[in-house]
Amino acid sequence: MPNVAPPPRPAADERCPCLSGEVFGSCCGPLLAGDSVAPTAVRLMRSRYTAFAVGDVAYLSASWHPDTRPEDLELDDETRWVRLDILGTEGGGPFDRHGTVEFRASYRSDEERGVLHERSRFTREGGRWFYVDGEL
């Protein structure tokens, strides 16, 4: 099958892929650009979903905790991430050190449609949140 390029990043005034209700320029855009850091675990989760949706491997690697980050991260160019639903959080606030975010992320490809349901663990070090791992 031919490789399909990931969708382009939304314009600053377009809806953010994470479906927060905000526009990309005031939601995940500044995080992906490195202009700010996620204040909470759920904001990091939303920005990581957006990074998957737009194919931003560099952001995904940078936001993954060094102890659990894979050496190589390759995204499936044919997978289109179409919806994120945050189901719940534990901790993960601006003054917490650890947090958990449960979510469902819907995807499509030419071959299938599906949902990834995960409880992701996050940790905050040096004022930055990092994705640690998750349970499917």
TrEMBL record:
It comes from the Bacteria. This is UPF0225 protein SAMN05443544_1153. It comes from Agromyces cerinus subsp. cerinus. Belongs to the UPF0225 family. Pfam families: YchJ_M-like. Signal peptide: none annotated. InterPro entries: NTF2-like_dom_sf, YchJ-like, YchJ-like_M. Residues 40-134 form the YchJ-like middle NTF2-like domain. SUPFAM superfamilies: NTF2-like.
